[in-house]
Amino acid sequence: MAQSEYYSNSKASAISLIIASLIVAASAGSFYDEMDLTFGGERAKILNGGQDLSLSLDQYSGSGFQSKNEYLFGRFDMQLKLVPGNSAGTVTTFYLSSQGAGHDEIDFEFLGNSTGNPYTIHTNVYSQGKGDKEQQFHLWFDPTAAFHTYTIVWNAQRIIFLIDNIPVRVFNNHEAAGVPFPKSQPMRVYASLWNADDWATQGGRVKTDWTMAPFTASYRKFNANANKVGPNSKSTTSENENQAWSTQGLDAAGRNRIRWVQNKHMIYNYCNDYSRFPNGLPVECTRSRFL
């Protein structure tokens, strides 16, 4: 092969690789395009050309971000790697929320712990400003060792919480029984890392060790297959209305998986807390075991 031909072919290959990498980057989405950093200054950082995002916490401040878009129903995926080592007192979050006194909210909160003890995965659902629907889990893996995918599916029939595509909780729409359900207020995606050592770890008995600061959690591969809502609260993404998430429930395999999670890894369920509800459990607790 002539030297000029070799360099020509090498140049063409290099250009092809650059184009391919740009296509991959575009299809993966970018935190620059999707998110606004909301507090914490330099503690919140978008990295790798928009592919990664890190949040840090020190004794002066935590940090956070929110989606540029509002959504009304959809599937929301985020990969997280949580604060390693002694994370006691820290809370890392990934959730949906509207604004105002009567707000709706769907929560994943990750409550840190002292070294060697498991994280607590805290889930909750608010509708019209009222929550008190907590379920908590210990994970079957180390969430600080690698990235794992946390998913919220939100449609008019139910909310499904998934971890690595394994359902851990379903909150069904029981409006017919008088239970409020979030379905009319658009929500943004939020994430944060903050100090909550007054309650987060063993009821507040274990405090944050600031000698270990800064604490850092990592986020990547956010995807919202969802109905975006415009300024006039009308859907601007009608092509998503027939997506699988819009009617998603649990099939037989999903029911088996959620039974396994709830039998083996659930550590708190408000529907079993009779001391908290001495006048009777909430109405929805008698309707579905997968709350």
TrEMBL record:
Q: Which positions fall inside the GH16 domain?
A: 5-219
> What's the protein called, per UniProt?
Xyloglucan endotransglucosylase/hydrolase
Give me any GO biological process, just one. Answer: plant-type secondary cell wall biogenesis
Family (UniProt) = Belongs to the glycosyl hydrolase 16 family.
**Cited function:** Catalyzes xyloglucan endohydrolysis (XEH) and/or endotransglycosylation (XET). Cleaves and religates xyloglucan polymers, an essential constituent of the primary cell wall, and thereby participates in cell wall construction of growing tissues.
- Organism (species): Helianthus annuus (Common sunflower)
What GO cellular component entries does it have? apoplast; plant-type cell wall
This protein's UniProt keywords: Apoplast, Cell wall, Cell wall biogenesis/degradation, Disulfide bond, Glycoprotein, Glycosidase, Glycosyltransferase, Hydrolase, Membrane, Secreted, Transferase, Transmembrane, Transmembrane helix
Q: What is its EC number?
A: 2.4.1.207
Posttranslational modification = Contains at least one intrachain disulfide bond essential for its enzymatic activity.
Going by the UniProt annotation, this protein carries glycans at: N113
Q: Where in the cell is it found?
A: Secreted, Cell wall; Secreted, Extracellular space, Apoplast
Q: Where is the active site?
A: E105, E109
Q: Which GO terms describe its molecular function?
A: hydrolase activity, hydrolyzing O-glycosyl compounds; xyloglucan:xyloglucosyl transferase activity
InterPro entries with a match to the protein in the record: Beta-glucanase-like, Beta-glucanase/XTH, ConA-like_dom_sf, GH16_AS, XET_C, XTH
- Where do the TM regions start and end? 12-32
**Residue numbers spanned by region Disordered:** 226-248
Please name the Pfam families in this protein's record. Answer: Glyco_hydro_16, XET_C
- Presence of keyword Ion transport: no
